[in-house]
Every structure is written in C-alpha cells, then in structure tokens.
C-alpha cells in the first residue's frame, strides 16, 4: 500500500485503488487480503492495515489509522479461521504512548507473531530505535518480532540488539540495480572507474556463487531447509557438485553494470547472500551468547576500523542495551 497511496482511498470498508492503467477502481478489504494470501500459499500472512507516513504531523489521523488497523485485525482473524500463521501489524507512528497502546491491543489477540510497521518512512534513526526498543520491550517472549521495511546492514544489527527477529526490505536488490555491492567492508559502487582493473572477488569473505572461485568446494548452507546441495546424478562428491563458484571479479561487474542487466543480476545474487549470511551469523552469535562481540566486530569491519565514522544514533541505541561500540 505504501507505494500506491497516491492512488488509494482508505475507508472503513477497505482500500480502494485506482488502476494507473485505465482508472478502474479496485477494492481491497481485510477479508480479501487474507483470502489472496491463502491462495498463493503464504508462509507468513499479514493483516491489512491503514497506512500513513510515519513522519506525518497529523496526530488525529495517526490515531485513526491505529484504531482502524486494530478493527481490521479482528476482521482478518475472523476470516483466517485457523489463525496460523497470521502476523499482525503494530501501528502508532513515532508516538511512543500510541505505540504502547497499540501493543497492548495487538498482544490481546494472541497471534503467532507481531510486526512492527510504519517505520522506514524517512524518520530519524534515533526515533526509529526508540520505537523498536519500546515495542520489543512490550511484546511477548517466544513469538517473532518482525520489523517491516528494514534491510540496511547497520539497521539490522542494531535492531536485533534491540530485540527484533525478522526483517524484509527491497534495499539489497534495489541497490544492486545501481551497481552497488554490499560487503563486509561496506557498500562498494562498482560503477566507479577505480574497479575497472580490479580482478579480485567482490568480497573475499563471501561464499556466494558470484564470489567463489571456479574450483571452490561446496560452501556451508545458509538454510538447508530451503534448498539442499545439488550433485550430478545424486552422487555426493566435490567433483559432482553443481554449485561451483563463478569466479566473478569486480572488474567484470564494472564492465557489465553500465551495459548489461546481468550485472544487476549478479550483484543481486551477491547482496542477498550477504544479507542472509549476516543474519545467520547474528543468530549464531546470539545462540553462543556473544552478540555484543559480534556487533563490535561488524561495525569495526563495516567502517574499516575507523570508529570516528560510527553513526551516533547506533552508538547511543546500543548503549541502551549495554553494548558500548567505542569501548576497546
């Protein structure tokens, strides 16, 4: 809905969109949204909510959106008889008291998970962290906390420290289309002429298909429940493994990005793998009770060891949960 708000009218019945092609009106109700998600076999089903820009100064409209989203949640739950796996969206903009009130109402519904929505809309990072920290403190243990629209690596690492579990974002794929590679040392703009003769992998620490060499052995799986390794004839062995690396270099990506869409495809494969790997490592660090160390190592690598570049909002937010980024 966020990207289509200019073409939408929101009423108690639902959201009426106007087709950008022929002006035909289309009504999306809370019930129909649940039906559509069921029809495509969604693993995580989200309620329809009343969307408003987080930075809106209109408190009355923000409160209206919150209460309407709560009412729509009840309609979604009624439609979704099995209640599994419905997740709800928590509203309230940047008003912490409104967020607390919405939290209380959402928790009463006892859904399998709760999403913190209405962020990544241009608000200051300090405000974003305050909202996430406030919400996670009020949400039940043992249920996933899903922050919608967040995908920048620094945001992910800080948000996990504040108690969030799941995220979604177009940033990793969108930035790939502009020739940007996400690496353990920050974001590289491979359109720059400085990479024209750089014949090293995008990221030496990356195990994605793009960065691995042609003779690379099978890498550790990021999630074996999604896809198992593939071998010729089903015979397991290093010589029958079908997922060998492509051995792509920065120079080759630089050559492609301004001319061929395959450059964006390759960077998308790399960026998505990087983000999945980052979250897998974060989870491993939590399980092994060393997340503060993981956070410090991440920021040190992301900013190439220059602590003067650490964003103040991240330093302050992490202090709240006992992580001092500037402590040696």
Automatic annotation (TrEMBL):
Signal peptide: none annotated. This is tRNA-guanine(15) transglycosylase-like domain-containing protein. Transmembrane segments: none annotated. Keywords: Zinc. It comes from the Eukaryota. Residues 1-213, 248-302 form the tRNA-guanine(15) transglycosylase-like domain. It comes from Discina gigas. NCBIfam families: tgt_general.
């Amino acid at each position: 809905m966020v990207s289509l708000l200019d073409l939408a009218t929101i009423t108690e019945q639902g959201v009426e969109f106007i087709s950008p092609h022929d002006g035909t009106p289309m009504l999306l109700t809370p019930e129909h949204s649940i039906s559509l998600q069921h029809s495509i076999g969604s693993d995580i089903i989200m309620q329809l909510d009343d969307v408003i820009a987080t930075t809106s100064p209109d408190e009355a409209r923000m409160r209206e959106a919150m209460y309407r989203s709560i009412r729509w949640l009840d309609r979604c739950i009624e439609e979704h008889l099995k209640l599994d796996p419905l997740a709800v969206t928590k509203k309230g903009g940047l008003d912490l008291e409104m967020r607390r009130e919405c939290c209380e109402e959402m928790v009463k519904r006892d859904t399998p998970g709760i999403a913190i929505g209405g962020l990544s809309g241009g608000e200051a990072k300090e405000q974003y962290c305050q909202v996430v920290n406030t919400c996670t403190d009020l949400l039940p243990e043992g249920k996933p906390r899903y922050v919608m629209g967040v995908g920048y690596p620094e945001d992910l690492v800080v948000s996990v420290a504040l108690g969030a579990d799941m995220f979604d974002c177009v940033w990793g794929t969108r930035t790939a289309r502009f020739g940007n590679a996400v690496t353990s040392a920050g974001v590289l703009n491979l359109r720059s002429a400085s990479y024209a003769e750089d014949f090293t992998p995008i990221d030496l620490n990356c195990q994605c298909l793009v960065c691995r060499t042609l003779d690379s052995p099978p890498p550790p799986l990021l999630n074996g429940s999604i896809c198992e390794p593939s071998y010729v004839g089903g015979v397991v062995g290093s010589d029958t493994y079908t997922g060998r690396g492509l051995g792509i270099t920065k120079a080759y990506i630089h050559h492609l990005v301004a001319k061929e869409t395959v450059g964006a495809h390759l960077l998308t494969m790399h960026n998505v793998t990087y983000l999945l790997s980052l979250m897998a490592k974060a989870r491993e660090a939590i399980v092994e009770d060393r997340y503060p160390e993981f956070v410090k190592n991440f920021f040190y690598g992301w900013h190439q060891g220059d602590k003067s570049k650490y964003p103040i909002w991240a330093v302050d937010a992490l202090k709240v949960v006992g992580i001092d980024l500037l402590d040696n």
